[in-house]
Amino acid sequence: VHPWKSFPGKKIEARLLCRILCKRTNLEHSGSWRSSTNAICKHKFVFHALCRLDKNFTSQSGLFAIRHGHLLRSWNTSSHQKVISHSQKIREHFSVVFVRLVAAMLLVTSASVALSNTRSWALSEENLLFLEAWRTIDRAYIDKTFNGQSWFRYREDALRNEPMNNREETYMAIRKMLATLNDPFTRFLEPEKFKSLRSGTQGALTGVGLSIGYPTESEGSRTGLVVISATPGGPANQAGISSGDIILEIDNASTESVGIYEAAERLQGPEGSSVELTVQTGPEIKHLTLTRAKISLNPVKSRLCEVPGSEKNYPKIGYIKLTSFNQKASAAVKEAIDTLRSNNVNAFVLDLRDNSGGLFPEGIETAKIWLDKGVIVYICDNRGVRDIYDTDGSSAIAASEPLAVLVNKGTASASEILAGALKDNKRAVLFGEPTYGKGKIQSVFQLSDGSGLAVTVARYETPGHNDINKVYCRSLCISLALSP
Known about the structure:
CATH class of the largest domain: Alpha Beta
GO cellular component, one term: chloroplast thylakoid lumen
Number of strands: 18
Distance between the termini: 99 Å
Keywords: Hydrolase, Protease, Serine protease, Thylakoid
Organism: Gossypium raimondii
EC number: 3.4.21.102
Radius of gyration: 36 Å
Structural class: alpha+beta
Subcellular location: Plastid, Chloroplast thylakoid lumen
Largest sheet: 6 strands, antiparallel
């Protein structure tokens, strides 16, 4: 074994580099590793580091010299020249190591180390609530470019610069964060609003019975908010408001720059209270005062229709009106089918007119009732198809009888999913008008303090890969004649 191979020069290099990196890591964690023009501080750091390097180098060199001396005395004269040759190699190796370490030190210090005056802070309860909302958007939002911004940088900037000293300031910071996404359907819900939204999907709501949205492209540059549907029997329906009407004012306040969710909150209120609306129907403008009432959200009405014919037994048609997709929707449709079947119906008519949607899972479950197999909807994000909802027919109870579906411009969201699935799977024929065209999916997330977020998580395509959102609606729901 050659004595120079036992020399710990590589160990010296590795240990010193580790110490340098550890020093840098400690500085980074303490907030002291940042750019600076403080040349004095920089030079001191280099000087002390090189002194430590020199001490370690000298110590290790001395240790080796002692070991090397013992080895020289124990070897015979014939090996002496060989040892000297190896010693020369060691000195050359030491020179390379030393130069390499100095270069490493210069590279490290090129980052301009200086004492930092960066303030540190502990995350408060308000900061944690903001971070909870930020993480929800980070994980669930459909657009992973976040409207072309660095989402992580926004988080850091907001924690440093946005005031979050109380709950209202935190809510304001969350709203400001969501506004950067430029998505009107992704919004913050304060605890009371979140509770109200949940009550609307569970079957009870107090208001005037209107579903509203933004004017579509086909409606030109009309201002205000468009009525998607009016709940049958509700205050708005009884006052003559119908799909396609434009709400210009709510309680004498213009709706031109008001979001649909803020407008919906203005329309809701205590049972028996009143709200004034300015509504445009065609060229006519009407001023109406409506009394808020508890809106019954039983989503299904059905009846048996007999069609007169030449035969003794008239054809019987089961008519099902589905007004919304709340938590009762699919179960209520099944119950209506069973009731109509007991009267020996020959066909069904499913009326989705003025159905503005609701719970996405209920739309899927309702589609399964009518389909023996096939794709119901594709869930897509910016990268393409993310998920597929289909059925194997195990939930089908009405997959064979002839089926017609009625739609209009008040048919939106989950009801468009159902209509698209039935049409593209050749299960039903659609009659009516182009639908509203809301092809984005929102999920509702509850935050730890009882508030919540409604977040656009995806868009959907029909089984034929047609995008429902605004474009496909014109071809999805065209009027068709029944095949003989």
